[in-house]
Every structure is written in C-alpha cells, then in structure tokens.
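Sequence decides. Consider this:

===
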Amino acid sequence: MKRAASAAAAFVAACLAASCPRDARADASAQDTTSVAPKTATVAVAPAPPSPSRKRPVPDYDGRGGPRPTAGEQALWVPRVLLSPVYLVTEYVLRRPLGVAVPAAESADLPRKLYDLVTFGPRHELGVVPVAFVEFNFNPSVGVYAFWDHAGFEANHLRLHAEAWPSDWMAANLTERVDLDRATSLQLRVSGVRRPDRVFYGLGPSSRQANESRYGEERFEAGAALDWRFWRSSHVQTALGLRDERTFDGYYGTDPALTQQVAAGAFALPDGFGKEYTVQYNRIVAAVDTRVPQSRPRSGARLEVAAEQGSDVRRSPASGWVRYGATAAGFVDLDGYARVLGLSVTTLFSDPLGAGPVPFMELAYLGGDHPMPAYYAGRLIDRSAAAATASYTWPIAPWLDGRLELSAGNVFGPHLDSFDAKLLRFSGAFGLSIAGLQDPPLELLFGLGTETVADGAVVDSVRVALGVPRTF
C-alpha cells in the first residue's frame, strides 16, 4: 500500500509539473508531499531561470555626451519640417475628425441610405449623382453624372457627364462601353464643350505668368476606342475619331483677351488661333504594368507609350501632325499598408507632318491632367516637354487617400533641343481623393509652381481645385 501511495503521489506531482505554471507547480508539489506521506518521493522542479537584467547604460566618463547624429539623420529634419503642415492637416483636420464621423455615419447606416438615394433598379444599375467642379481663377460648373449598367443587354454600360455655368460655359460627355469579353471592351464616345476662360501665356519654357490672357474654345468630338487588358494592369488601346476645334478671344474677370496681349507685345499670335479646323485622328496607347489591379495599387513598375496622328481634313494633305510620348515609373510599397513611393519620368513630343505648322492646341503641354499639375492646363506649351516626378501616396481613412507630388521639368523646342537645366521649373502638389473611386472620381488639389531656375525659381503659380474632374 505504501508503494502504491508513493507511486500515486509521484504520478500526481509529474502531472502538476507538466500542466501548471511554475509557481503553482512548486505549491502543488509541496502540498502533495505533505498530504500523502512524510517520506514519499517528490519530483524536483527546475528553478526558474533568472530574468534578464536590463543592460546598464554606459556612463558618460568624459562628459562628451552620446554619439553625434549622422548626416543622414540630420538631413531627415528637412523633410520633417517641410512636410509638417501636410502632416498636421491630414492628422488633425482630416484623419481624427473622420475617425469620429465615420463610425457615427456607419452606425446610422448613412452610406447605404445615400447610395439608395442616387441609385435605382434591383441591382442598382441606374444612378444620377449631382457633381460640381471649382477651380481657382476659372468659372465653376455644376451638373450631373449619370450611369446605366447593363443598358439593354448585360455587357452594355452608359455614362453621361454634363456640366454648365451661366457665363457661356457648357460641356457634356456621353460614353457607351460594350464588354466584348472579360479582357476586351469597345468604347464609343461623343463630347462637346464651349467655354470662354481658357488661359494662354505664350509658347516656350520662359513664358511669363504676368502675360496671362484668355481665349475661348468650342470643340466637338466623336470617336471609338478598343481596349485590351492582357496582364495585371497592362493594356493596349487603339482609337480613331473626328475632332472639330474653334478658338476665339475669351474673358474672365478683368483678364485681357489673347489678341490684346498679342497687340501689347507680350507674345506672338499662336498658330491656329482664330481658325476652325477638323482633325481626323488615330491613336494608340500601350502600357505594361506589373501591379495587380486593386483600389490601392502597391509595388510595381509601369512603362507606357502613346502616339496620335492627326490631319486637318479641311486643309489636307498640307496640314498634319503627330504627338507621341512615353512614361517610365516605379513604385514601392514602403510598409505593406499602401504607403507607396513612386518615381517617374515623362517625355512628350509634337511634330508637323507636311508644310503646315502644328496648331497650338495640338502641341505638347504640362499642367492640368498632365505631369506637373500645380500649373493650369495650358500654362506650359511648346513642341516637346519633359518632367521627372517623385510621389508619395498614403491612406488617411478607410476610403480617403492622400497624395504628395514633387516635379521638375518644362516645355522645350523640337525634340528637347533647347533643354537646359536653368530652364527647369518646379511643381509641388498635395491632393486628396476617394480610394478606388473612379466612377466618378472626386479630388481636392492644391499646388504651387515656380518660374524657371534662371528666373530665380520663385513661386508664381497657385492652383486650387475641388470636385469631379472634367472629362471634356
């Protein structure tokens, strides 16, 4: 019996040693050995290893303090100071208030209610959304964006974007896209615009902000495009169509008309101004993009080339031109959370085909929806253009992205033959956009642009825009 009791005590102690915490094992072992028999065998428990002691700081024997920061660590203060306003705005004006507003809106089911308010149909295939666009120093506009998916048949999709303003400002764009298969789609597009507040500052890299003038534009375009997506975000698009253009003296506030600035000697009258022409164009765009399509693209590389040949059918064969260019870009997701650093280089060219000059509306340009968005569309125009851009995008909220973009570049003569580092300009832009929202997009942009390095690189261009960017 004593042997059986001793064996049972040893078995209980072993079980406790295997399943209980270290302190509990010691207590259980002590209780078992005293309660079963004074002479029973006990299982020895290894003592807990000593907790690692914190490393003692090295005394400052010579009174010289710690090691000095490296040059790289000191240089980090420059972007920290420069970007501190952006951080303060995104952190305290946007992210933290949104951190309170978004849960409240979700608890009230507000997103679904708003979505149901502007969409119709059993699958929400119909929708009408009020839109607007406000850009500093231009006429604003208000309008509607309407969509109809599966219009008539499953693969058919219609989009209408129309905006206007009482001061002779009206524009519309109607697009029909037919999905031929999962990778190929055919798009038919008709658009028209009439507006009096376009800007022109002269041609060339040294055009002056002080020479701002206004001209009006009437444009009607009809075309078709075939798009083929073949790998990840890669695609090839071919397009053809007709575009009718007419330009005339415009107005906005007290700004002078284009011909007034010509008469004052600010710049020469650009080719094609005041003349109506009709362009028959053929276009191809090819892009190889290693990034997987998603609402927030991550690491990867992109190479895009584009070319468009146009002929003025009113004056052919004497008048024609070709526009072409390329962009190479690389992107790195810094931490796996869509904080993406990008670097890109873009070149654009426009060459005449035949004896006639290229109309100024068909030349290469920077600003607007092209690289260096801190400038107005039409601020920089000439036969060629080049720009290098560093960008950083990051998520501010579950559906809100921030973008910071710094660029250097300018427009130049034919084939960049007048390129000079002293003629470079700098563009810095900060923007906000709805993550993954492309239909329609919504953006806020604030940008600053400079004069050329030769003129001191002083800031002379400010661009502020908010709303749904125009597609016409």
Notes: The radius of gyration is 33 Å.
